[in-house]
């Protein structure tokens, strides 16, 4: 099982070698406008949403290792197709394939780490190991974002084709994983499969965890809106050249790597409640202030969002893992991931349209306003028992 942890670090690097990271929006805009980008993002998210629960259940049924292997294979195919795209339709098809692959990864990667540690009776290491994987991913972003910007200047297709090769390497490395000896459900009928799919929602919305889940879903939805769409519009509006985009995303990756290492230390000292709420408030205020400053300060605000995202993602994963039994963990994490993406799937075309009309800075400000109002309502309405639950984890 110790080998799984080491392989998790390697897979974090290989699966995060997204050389397209800094330039994807520029590439999409070669085939469409801002509104079309919103439609592509909606396609991406709807595919993820439709595939999320079945793939999470499949991971619990066939094993997390096989689920990861399917993920890496589909991602490689999707990126090869995207790099070869010559039309909006081909671009959309490649996104569909890639996101089915992403759905197979969602939940399985974290679950195999947690269950490997559980087998070793070392679950207290989970948050630290997860922080290491996040730091590796962020450091990878630093390198590949800079290189990807240079690749794009040579050929816009090159970053996507090279990314596909790295996913093939991830597929090979995943063959060395050992499936943790956890209890699995047997797939005997369609009814059994449907029953497995409902277990994720059951664990998330149990009475003693309901309001915790609602809070986590709310702030995670804001993270998804920024991370998947809005922040990229903000950065491209501030830094339009691909070479400089690569440098910008490299710096943001460095910030992400550093902040991921802070999470377990801060949580150990303060618990989960104070860091989680503080990160949510900082995230929303950073959106609110976006149109009020110069380009350099705006990019700095994006950097604060990267820090906030690290705390929110890490603490959310820890709370859900602690609450969920091993045999249903991948399903539950997939359910949470799916639910947190629903708001963006619904509003992506609207946000993109508004960005085209009013600019990314103004749209960011309104996200901050709406988010702070909703967070205030949530915090003023939750019961003290919910706060105690957060403090205990």
The CATH H-level superfamily is MFS general substrate transporter like domains
- Biggest sheet features: none
Which parts are unreliable, with pLDDT below 50 for 5 consecutive residues or more?
186-190
Question: What is the CATH architecture annotation?
Answer: Up-down Bundle
**Overall radius of gyration:** 20 Å
Mean pLDDT level = 85
At the first level of CATH, the class is Mainly Alpha
CATH topology: Growth Hormone, Chain: A
**What is the general shape?**
globular
What's the count of strands? 0
Determine the N-to-C terminus distance. Answer: 25 Å
Q: What pattern of helices and strands is seen along the backbone?
A: HHHHHHHHHHHHHHHH
Binned, the helix content reads over 70%
What is the count of DSSP helices, taking H or I runs of 4+ residues?
A: 16
Q: In percent, how much strand structure appears in the residues?
A: under 5%
Q: Structural class of the helices, strands and pairings? A: mainly alpha
> How many domain regions?
1
3D structure, described in words:
It is a single chain. This protein is an all-alpha fold. The protein has one domain (2-177, 191-392): Growth Hormone, Chain: A (Up-down Bundle). 82% of the residues lie in helices and 0% in strands. It contains 16 helices and no strands. It has helices at residues 2-15, 24-28, 34-62, 64-83, 88-105, 108-119, 126-154, 158-174, 190-204, 210-238, 242-270, 273-288, 295-323, 329-358, 360-381, 384-392. α4 (64-83) runs antiparallel to α5, α4 runs antiparallel to α6 and α9 (190-204) crosses α14 (329-358). It starts with a helix and ends with a helix.
């Amino acid at each position: 099982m110790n080998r799984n942890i080491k392989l998790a670090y390697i897979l974090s690097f290989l699966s995060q070698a997204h050389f397209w990271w800094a330039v994807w929006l520029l590439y999409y805009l070669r085939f469409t406008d801002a509104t079309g980008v919103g439609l592509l993002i909606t396609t991406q998210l709807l595919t993820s949403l439709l595939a999320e629960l079945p793939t999470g259940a499949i991971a619990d049924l066939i094993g997390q290792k096989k689920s990861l292997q399917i993920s890496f294979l589909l991602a490689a195919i999707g990126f090869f197709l995207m790099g070869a795209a010559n039309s909006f339709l081909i671009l959309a098809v490649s996104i569909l394939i890639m996101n089915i692959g992403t759905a197979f990864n969602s939940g399985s990667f974290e679950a195999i780490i947690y269950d490997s540690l559980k087998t070793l009776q070392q679950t207290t290491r989970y948050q630290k190991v997860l922080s290491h994987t996040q730091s590796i991913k962020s450091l990878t972003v630093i390198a590949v974002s800079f290189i990807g910007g240079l690749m794009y200047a040579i050929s816009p297709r090159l970053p996507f084709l090279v990314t596909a090769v790295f996913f093939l390497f991830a597929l090979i490395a995943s063959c060395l994983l050992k499936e943790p000896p956890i209890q699995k459900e047997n797939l005997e009928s369609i009814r059994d499969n449907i029953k497995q799919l409902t277990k994720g929602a059951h664990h998330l919305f149990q009475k003693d965890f309901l309001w915790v889940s609602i809070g986590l879903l709310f702030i995670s939805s804001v993270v998804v809106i920024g991370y998947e769409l809005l922040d990229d519009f903000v950065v491209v509006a501030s830094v339009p050249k691909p070479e400089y985009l690569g440098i910008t995303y490299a710096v943001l990756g460095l910030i992400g790597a550093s902040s991921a290492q802070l999470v377990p230390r801060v949580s150990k000292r303060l618990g989960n409640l104070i860091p989680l709420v503080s990160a949510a408030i900082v995230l929303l205020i950073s959106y609110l202030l976006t149109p009020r400053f110069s380009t350099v300060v705006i990019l700095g605000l994006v950097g604060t969002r990267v820090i906030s995202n690290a705390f929110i993602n890490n603490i959310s994963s820890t709370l859900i893992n602690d609450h969920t039994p091993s045999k249903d963990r991948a399903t539950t994490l997939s359910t949470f991931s799916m639910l947190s993406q629903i708001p963006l799937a619904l509003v992506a075309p609207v946000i993109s349209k508004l960005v085209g009309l009013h600019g990314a800075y103004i749209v960011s400000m309104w996200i901050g306003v709406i988010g702070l109002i909703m967070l205030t309502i949530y915090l003023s309405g939750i019961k003290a028992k919910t706060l105690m639950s957060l403090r205990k984890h």
